[in-house]
């Protein structure tokens, strides 16, 4: 978990891709969670003191963060489970972090990915934002002051902290990432139920990549071999309205095609984020929201920061 104070600072453990955290002695393989670097840099440059408080032994925290440039120096306090009497869910580790930061516990904001951590933060009378590390677990985190889907959705101004300044026209630039393969048959719902066709890719070869990226709505460019390069808006996730079992990727190419293109090679570069995945009370409201996402993506992709990726050679490769 990660904790700040609203005067203020933070602690964390929410910053690593969780599935890799158990791979002892292979810390160098642990990628930062999307949004973690952005958060640390932002708070540091705004002079917000941060603490890192984890039930892990201090030695393994040090080993883990040593692979992330600038992280160690960003935290005024780093504290391991072996430095306090009782680990989370006891509030000890948070009290100790606040004491070392010389900040009142009540002025601290905790960012937590685990239930024991949320319990500990609330027991320390801190404000707690939960970013559950396991999908479909948000309903268990009712004790938190807010539950968010990923660090990308953190709104610091809600907690009296300096807001992020990197949103552009309702979009958040992300480090571009790439995915591609032959277009496969999906659930057959896109066009039929929603009037919105989504060219599905096999997730079999991409389970790591999909696990890495938070569920939500993204956009970028799509290269379809022999046909061209098109604007694209897509969702990643379980589509709560349909409650899918598997996390899928559903790209909608913003172009009118006269025919299906199953089996053809599709390449995507994802350049920005729009919103988290949410459920909708009606199909109509879901469809309206997807069209709004399309408009946001369509106009954002005209901005030089996004339009430049249209020339990415990956989109033309086969
Ligand atoms: P499925 O569940 O098989 O993916 P969809 O109803 O989502 O079925 O339709 C997706 C298919 O429609 C794609 O695989 C593609 O062949 C075709 N298609 C036509 N126009 C588009 C478009 N603009 N974006 C994505 N797919 C499209
Ligand atoms: Mg589809």
Kindly describe this structure.
The radius of gyration is 21 Å and the shape is elongated. The strands form 3 sheets. Strands 9-8-13-10-11-12 form a 6-stranded antiparallel sheet, covered by helices on one side. Strands 2-1-5-6-7 form a 5-stranded mixed sheet, with helices on one face. The model is unreliable at 5-25 (pLDDT under 50). By secondary structure, it is an alpha+beta fold. 39% of the residues are buried. It folds into 2 domains: 9-159, Rossmann fold; 172-316, Beta Barrel (Elongation Factor Tu (Ef-tu), domain 3). 23% of the residues lie in helices and 24% in strands. Bound molecules: adenosine-5'-diphosphate and magnesium ion (MG). Residues 183, 185-192, 197-200, 252-253, 255, 257, 260-262 line the site of adenosine-5'-diphosphate (ADP). This is riboflavin kinase. Its EC number is 2.7.1.26. InterPro entries: HAD-like_sf (IPR036412), HAD-SF_hydro_IA (IPR006439), HAD_sf (IPR023214), Riboflavin_kinase (IPR023468), Riboflavin_kinase_bac/euk (IPR015865), Riboflavin_kinase_dom_sf (IPR023465).
């Amino acid at each position: 978990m990660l904790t700040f104070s609203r005067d203020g600072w933070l602690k964390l453990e929410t910053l690593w891709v969780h599935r890799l955290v158990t791979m002892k002695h292979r810390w160098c393989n642990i990628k930062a969670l999307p949004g973690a670097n952005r958060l640390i840099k932002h708070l540091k440059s705004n002079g917000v003191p941060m603490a890192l408080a984890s039930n892990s032994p201090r030695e393994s925290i040090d080993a883990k963060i040593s692979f992330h440039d600038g992280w160690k120096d960003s935290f005024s306090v780093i504290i391991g489970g072996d430095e306090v009497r009782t680990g989370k869910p006891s509030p000890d580790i948070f009290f100790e972090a606040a004491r070392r930061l010389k900040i009142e516990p009540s002025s601290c904001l905790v960012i937590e990915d685990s239930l024991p951590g949320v319990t500990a933060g609330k027991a320390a009378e801190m404000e707690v934002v939960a970013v559950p590390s396991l999908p479909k677990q948000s309903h268990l985190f009712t004790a938190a002051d807010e539950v968010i889907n990923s660090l990308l959705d953190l709104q610091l101004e809600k907690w009296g902290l300096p807001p992020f300044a990197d949103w552009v026209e309702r979009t958040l630039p992300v480090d571009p990432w790439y995915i591609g393969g032959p277009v496969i048959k999906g659930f057959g719902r896109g066009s039929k139920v929603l009037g919105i066709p989504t060219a599905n890719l096999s997730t079999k070869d991409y389970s790591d990549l999909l696990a890495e990226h938070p569920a939500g709505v993204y956009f970028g460019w799509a290269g379809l071999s022999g046909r061209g390069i098109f604007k694209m808006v897509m969702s990643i996730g379980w589509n709560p309205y349909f409650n899918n079992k598997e996390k899928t990727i559903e790209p909608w190419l913003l172009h009118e095609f006269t025919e299906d293109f199953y089996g053809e090679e599709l390449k995507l570069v994802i350049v920005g984020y729009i919103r988290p995945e949410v459920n909708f009370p009606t199909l109509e409201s879901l469809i309206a929201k997807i069209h709004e996402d399309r408009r946001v993506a369509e106009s954002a992709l005209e901005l030089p920061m996004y339009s430049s990726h249209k020339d990415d050679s990956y989109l033309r490769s086969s």
